[in-house]
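Protocol step 4 of 5: obtain the predicted structure for the target chain.
Materials: sequence only (see below). No template structures provided, no constraints applied. The aim of this step is simply to have a reference model before the mutagenesis design in step 5. Sequence pasted as it appears in the construct record:
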Amino acid sequence: MKPTTAILIGAGDRGARAYAPYALKNPHELKIIGVAEPNELRRDKIKQEHNLSTEDCFHSWEDLLTTEKTADIAIICTMDREHFGPTMKALELGYHVLLEKPMSPDPKECIAMEQQAEKFNKQLTICHVLRYTDFWSTIKKVIEDGKIGEVASIQLNENVEVMHMSHSFVRGNWKKKEDSSPMILQKSCHDMDIIRYVINKKCERVSSYGSLMHFRKENMPAGAPKRCLDGCPAAQSCPFHAGNYYLGEGRGWARKFTEDTSNEGIIKALNETDYGKCVYQLDNDVVDHQVVNMEFEDGATATFSMCGFTREQTRTVQIMGTKGELRGNMTENQISYYDFLTKHETIVKFDSPTGGHGGGDLGIMRDFLIDIQQSDRSKSVSSASNSLSSHLMAFAAEESRLNKGTSIELDTFYNNLSKQYSVME
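Step 4 output (structure tokens):
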């Protein structure tokens, strides 16, 4: 049996390091036969790793997605605001599509993409990779098996970790919602999705609060220059000093903005890119903390907290049921659930995951290749229709946050959006 063939659109961190390597490790299952990537160094790296010809490598998705379909699937990992165009075109041409989250920063585009997949009967899978981890799939099974009774409430915390916050959402590609997405969508659509997934009930309304509290000009150290390497007087007292961080414990993050990770290469990049700028003097506008309240059908509730000011980068969860309680910590890679009647606690420890996102990056690739063989698209764990629900929760949460926590009714919110745009008409 021949391997599934794929084109890769966007060879950044997620495309090149999370999904494309599956083809190198499993050549009998997947083969990359084309790439579109505007960055020449990234494009050439994919060319070499996957033994592509020059004719198989393109600067833009428009050049790759011509009127002729050349592969079975398209893996799309462009920046958030560049998801819509290639996804719509790929589905029209007959590709099954694996799309990096979020679907789009525009809710109308999300609806249109879901409709496009239905129109052409193609698999559109959104990379909600948490669903494919042992951690969350086991939690879902514990709930489905009734071991903690009916879920009454969920508390989920996303601890972004303070230096990840400064790297990705203050200095990095996702610092401005107009260029990328609101924080609740870009970083936390995973969390909206996993709450919806494990509770398996319709979310009826949401409310939300949050702000950009700290990474603002008024909080910069006195006399701080625009760039950290230009003699900042707070070099030894500021945890965000770019030189100290990226040439020290944050050296691993430096590879995300420079191919040359020698001291000289990093210093050059810090003098030329936003990653070398003072975190208090950038044009970032996404929130550094946010909370979301959710009410589901039958009265179940959930609270979600995303905060950039944490020591660890992890997710912690507490699920309270009518017969017991479940707790989990992704960094510790274990869960426990407690029975109110027997007073017994069951602890489940998972093996060290293979691959990123607790093994989810590997799991979603494997499942996607199985899903495209199925005639019933609704069976996919992360189909576009399933993903759309959690995306709308994130969009509604941001709408609420911008309106001082006003409660948003999801049905009304969706119906208003649906009237504005439909590719099915």
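Step 4 remarks: Residues 19 and 341 are 45 Å apart (CA to CA). The chain has three domains: 4-129, 132-215+285-356+381-420, 217-276.
Proceed to step 5.
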